[in-house]
Design a protein that fits this description.
The protein has eight helices and 14 strands. It is an alpha/beta fold and 250 residues long. The strands form four sheets. It has a five-stranded parallel β-sheet, with helices on both faces. The protein is elongated. The C terminus is likely disordered.
Length: 250
Amino acid sequence: MKKSNTKVYLVGCGIGDPELLTIKAYKIIQSVDIVLYDHLISKEIMALMPKQTKKVFVGKQKGFHSMNQEAINDLITKYASQGLTVARLKSGDPFVFGRGAEELQSLLQEGIETEVVPGISSAISAPLMADIPITARGYASGFTVVSAHLKGNSVNLDWVDLMQKKNHTIVVLMGLSRVSQIVEEAKRLGVSGQKPCAIIANASRKNQQVIITTLNKLEEEAKTAERPAILVFGDVVNFTRSVGFLAHER
């Protein structure tokens, strides 16, 4: 990796535990001139960076948007145009509801060399950290990953009917603040109130929180959940307990 050449890396940083970084991601954040990060990047991962590396916060979170996506795109371009190597750190995987595709498109339009580095997405790894298999024979033969949050702060409920599909798991990203709407739509469609579901917050981190519940109780339980969090719907939620293993407690 030649630091004399301008290049931007869109780096997937996984779900927070630094030991879950890929070797490539680790090498990149150790060697670039500047990193752009947001509130989802854990303190433990930030601590891996050399002191001389410039660190720029570009936080975007619900209720507090310090910088919109277009401004972030412009900032990445600005630093790259100065001849610097830049790492844009992305939680999870850059291309799983992380707007990495938008950043890549913007950079390529500017003629800036860019490399996307895969990361472990919470869509698959967060359930694992809670002892919930996304698929398991007799419980789920497939899964769907959706975002409940769309551009313009609108809600996405087009997937809720999948709750009625047998042997299927649904993983919902950015859905905690939309729980009341999800529950309302599910009940409107006739989904059983006993539908197993889970909330997994801060997966892999010291403050990980796992709440096992049902559709009927989801809205109330969501009030105590921390962020960031994912939702899981399906019989796999109860798999670990059903086979006699000790699941994570709330």
